[in-house]
Amino acid sequence: MSPVPPRSGSRPSRNDDLLRLGGEVVRFGVEAYGQGWAITSRSLRREVDRVISGVKTSAPPTTILRGLASGYVNWLGELAAMVPSVAESAAMEFAQASSQGDPEPSASAADAGAGPAAKGDYFEVAGKPFAMPARVLDASQGWAMFFVSSEAANRSLGAASDYLSAFDAGDGRTPLSIIGVDYRNSDFGVYPEIAVALTVTAKGDPTGQLFVYYLAIVVTQDFTREAARVVWGLEKTVEPKLVASYAADAVRFGLPEPGGKALAIRFPRFGDGHSSDIPVFSISQRQLPTAPKPQTCWAMMTRSGNGEGTQIGGSVLLELGSPSDGLCLCRNKQSACLCEVLRTFDIAERFPAANGWTERQSALFGPPRLLELP
Question: Which CATH architecture is the domain 134-370 placed in?
Fold first, then answer.
């Protein structure tokens, strides 16, 4: 397995920082320009196809115009989301590069002074090479975000509270997300997943960078559990009976047994929006062979999607079970009861602050990188 020990070398000078900042500014401009053109060209292709399809099917002009108007709004939305996404990625890269300094010229991913490269690196999972970045080529995803007590969120962090704090979004409330993903084609395998995550900050980080911290992830296969543990230090619970059940207007993630006897969540299925390369930063701790204790690492995932919708307070149905029923997702005793954890947040009887759905999603999961703080 490729290690991720701390980088060696001294703190770079102010001139080094200025040169690095200039490089990031140039990279930001080039990437923003390129992504802008990519978004525009994709949008034009979609609208041309929409018009041609409408003409072929003799659709009324008003229907075609409504479709074009919707496409125009999606295009504006993608452009609006693209700039802060690129800026956030560039800022994160610059902050980490400034704190780590420059690697030795002869360093490689396996050397003691370098972490895994963003591209071309690999880990060993189940005796096989697992390349970075890991790819999701086709998936569907639903999510629901609740605002919960920051005090309860900090308690739920457990041992992670030594290096993390729940992000207070105002009035003592922290965003908590419940996510259901149906992976149909990915490097991790083909399986459904339920994840519960908090928005957090790293203690001692003067920038207050926001990260996603996973309280729990439930999957159906051992390989994805092993990959998450080896690469990012994440712990996943395996429940082979977890399924994603599709209806015309909703998708339910949970055990096939109905009746609210185990954790399940149903997401509305809607939307015709698009998104491109939206970054999400996660944080975790992983044990390195060369380190006496677990090291705090961050990683970036970028996601793109079609058939997307977002709404405020949508009709998301959350079902919480009980271990006494014998049908709980955590009945294998690998982890604490997730339903009991969610009950402490008092969210079962209320709609989320926001929720969304992506019909066709792709993503890239980057390698872990040491979180270097001043």
Answer: Beta Barrel (2.40)
